[in-house]
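Thread: Newbie trying to understand structure tokens

Hi all, I'm a second-year student working on a class project, and my supervisor (Dr. K.) asked me to get a predicted structure for one chain before our next meeting. I've only ever worked with sequences, so writing a 3D structure as a token string is new to me. If someone could post the tokens and maybe explain what I'm looking at, I'd be very grateful. Here's the chain:
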Amino acid sequence: MKLCLYNPASGEPIPFLQVSLTQDAFFPPGGVGTASIYKSLKDNFEGMRTDVEGVGDEAFITTGGIYIMADGYYIQVGAGNTSNAAIRERLIEAGKIAVAKLKTLK
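---
Reply by user tm_fold:
Sure, no problem. This is what the structure looks like when written as tokens:
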């Protein structure tokens, strides 16, 4: 997993933005992979998550942020209290940006 923590620009209303990327290349052959991790998290948050359309191949928001599967990569973005509608919108937008940036690197 690669993890980046971004501090807010001056005057920003959120305390942080954290983005992590996990790819199958980080795992030994035949080991647990990104799809397995994502599915486990999705299953564990059953009944406590909100599925999100239009971000990666599939995504959901729950405690901790937005969880995204995109082209075999697992991305997680955190930005604060997911009960806050403004934070959820920020997570969705950050997720879209992360997926778009990922596609440019491939």
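A couple of things are worth pointing out once you decode it. Strands lie at 2-6, 17-23, 50-52, 58-62, 65-70, 73-78. The radius of gyration is 14 Å. Feel free to ask follow-ups in this thread.
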